[in-house]
Design brief:
Shape: elongated
Helix content: over 70%
Order of helices and strands: HHHHHH
Largest sheet: none
Number of strands: 0
């Protein structure tokens, strides 16, 4: 299983975590069409809201910190890494995605902003 220092210095662990993390996120929900892909396409079509909300960076900081902690746990896990990722990653995304969706939909244009202005 190796020591903690060996795990931290093993770049293959980082590659496995990032690859499995991206693949699990893309397939999230088990639908034929990627839910994350649909949200990204919608964001490209709708665009950013013109309204300014103070403190939006806090959402990003919280999400980033939470993902960083999960990443550190995976790097240092004493369990088999692939097993650990396959049994927990989708559940951990549920923790992160709720706040990420809130942040995402605040960032997007509202339906009122998307409707054409009536003269």
């Amino acid at each position: 299983q190796g020591s903690l220092i060996e795990k931290v210095l093993d770049w293959e662990r980082y590659r496995i975590i990032l690859q499995r993390g991206a693949s699990t996120l893309w397939r999230f929900g088990g639908t034929p069409v990627s839910f994350v892909g649909v949200l990204l396409a919608y964001a490209l079509l709708a665009g950013k809201s013109i309204q300014k909300f103070t403190g939006m960076w806090v959402f990003g900081a919280l999400i980033g910190f939470q993902l960083l902690v999960y990443f550190a746990v995976y790097v240092s896990t004493p369990h088999d890494l692939v097993w650990h990722l396959s049994t927990s990653l989708d559940r951990l995304y549920l923790h992160v995605l709720l706040l990420a969706f809130l942040w995402f939909f605040i960032w997007l244009k509202s339906p009122q902003e998307l409707l054409p202005k009536e003269s």
